[in-house]
Amino acid sequence: MVIKMENINALDEMHKGCCMGTDAISYILDKVEDDSFKNILEKQSKTYENIKKDIEKIYPEYNDGKPHETNMMTKAMTKSGIEMKTMNDKSNSKIAELLIQGTNMGIIEGRKILNNKKIDDKVRHLLDRYVGMQEKYLEVLKSYL
Question: What pLDDT is attached to residue 1?
Answer without folding.
Answer: 53
